[in-house]
Prior knowledge:
The chain has 7 helices and 3 strands; from the N terminus they run αααβββαααα. The protein is mainly alpha-helical. The protein has a 3-stranded antiparallel beta sheet.
Amino acid sequence: xxxxxxxxxxxxxxxxxxxxxxxxxxxxxxxxxxxxxxxxxxxxxxxxxxxxxxxxxxxxxxxxxxxxxxxxxxxxxxxxxxxxxxxxxxxxxxxxxxxxxxxxxxxxxxxxxxxxxxxxxxxxxxxxxxxxxxxxxxxxxxxxxxxxxxxxxxxxxxxxxxxxxxxxxxxxxx
Length: 174
């Protein structure tokens, strides 16, 4: 009803979503044709670029809507955390599939663990608690599925969530 009144076309948003759906299917088809080895090799760079985009969101280049600064406006609004989720999965899969990574050692949690902490703290700045939970969950599940010890899994859940809780409490009390 609102689109008919404000835009003069009652089907404006339907057509807009239809266009984005077609674009999404085309992009999905193109991405599915890229060999997984290329995705693995590019995963660290893609994850780094995604982290950079989360940093950009917190600068004046970021766009705030309803009190949450989660978007970058580049002609259309882009929510970098959605790209972050995809590249985070790529990064974790590539990291844990490396035969040199000893899943029985806690030291092999350092690189993905610190990366998770950085991502979660950046999400606390937006604030985006739901996406922080998803990032922590992906980290924990991928670690467990790669053969990590259950004790290490518990630590990998509690430490990032504790840090996020501290960051959120600091953000809302200051």
